[in-house]
């Protein structure tokens, strides 16, 4: 699914209901057709699940550096943001505000998401990745991360700041499973 064709309501459900204490926890349930993809095999650019996991997720070096910097600046809280580009490669980073201001969770402002998705579409780009940091944990998706991953076409990137040198995990998430995928810097 490309961002330009994505209903903004889906983005709102993904982030507005990130945690149980949000304003609308009832929206983020398995009974809500927007909370999980209907066909987990629907991956990025129409390729199958197996190919998407083997295909490296690529990003420019400047996006990589900006993402790491953003995560370091937000420490001790989790940082979060969106990545957009053409052809599945991350060319643009969109820093988002973590409205929870917590070291173990994040949520994005619904209005900010809507504005960014409109800008992405206006630029002719697609949502290709979603990132956040784990200030004290490894770069592995938590149960919460997996439960609220509603965009199987996007890569999920986790920056760990648990060690002095940041570590990055890159995943494709379908249903209740996360699959590690290779990362390529351009």
Tell me what the structure shows.
With 186 residues, this protein is α/β, with parallel strands linked by helices. It has one domain: Cytidine Deaminase, domain 2 (3-Layer(aba) Sandwich), CATH 3.40.140.10. The protein has 5 helices and 8 strands, in the order ααβαββαβαββββ. Strands 3-2-4-5-6-7 form a 6-stranded mixed β-sheet, sandwiched between helices. 38% of the residues are buried.
- The level 1 CATH classification is Alpha Beta
Helical element count?
5
The total domain count is 1
Tell me the series of helices and strands, N- to C-terminal.
Answer: HHEHEEHEHEEEE
Biggest sheet descriptor: 6 strands, mixed
Give me the secondary-structure category: alpha/beta
Strand order in space, largest sheet: 3-2-4-5-6-7
Instruction: Classify the fold: give the CATH topology.
Output: Cytidine Deaminase, domain 2
- Specify the CATH architecture: 3-Layer(aba) Sandwich
Helical fraction equals 25-40%
End-to-end C-alpha gap: 24 Å
CATH superfamily: Cytidine Deaminase, domain 2
Shape: globular
Strand content: 15-25%
Question: Unreliable segments (pLDDT under 50, ≥5 consecutive)?
Answer: 1-48
Provide mean pLDDT, rounded.
Answer: 79
Strands, count? 8
What is the CA-atom radius of gyration, in angstroms?
15 Å
């Amino acid at each position: 699914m490309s961002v330009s064709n994505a209903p903004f309501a889906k983005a709102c459900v993904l982030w507005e209901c990130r945690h149980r204490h949000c304003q609308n926890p009832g929206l983020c349930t398995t009974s809500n057709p927007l909370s999980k993809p209907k066909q987990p095999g629907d991956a990025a650019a129409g390729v199958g699940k197996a190919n998407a996991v083997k295909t490296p997720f690529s990003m420019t070096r400047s996006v990589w550096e900006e993402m790491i910097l953003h995560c370091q600046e937000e420490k001790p809280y989790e940082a979060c943001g969106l990545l957009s580009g053409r052809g599945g490669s991350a060319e643009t980073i969109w820093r988002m505000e973590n409205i929870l201001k917590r070291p173990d969770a994040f949520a994005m402002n619904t209005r900010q998401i809507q504005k960014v998705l409109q800008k992405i579409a206006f630029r002719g780009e697609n949502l290709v990745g979603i990132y956040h940091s784990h200030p004290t944990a490894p770069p592995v998706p938590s149960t919460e991360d997996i439960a609220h991953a509603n965009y199987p076409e996007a890569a999920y990137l986790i920056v760990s700041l648990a060690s002095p040198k940041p570590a990055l995990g890159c995943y494709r998430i379908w249903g209740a499973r996360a699959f590690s995928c290779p990362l390529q810097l351009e």
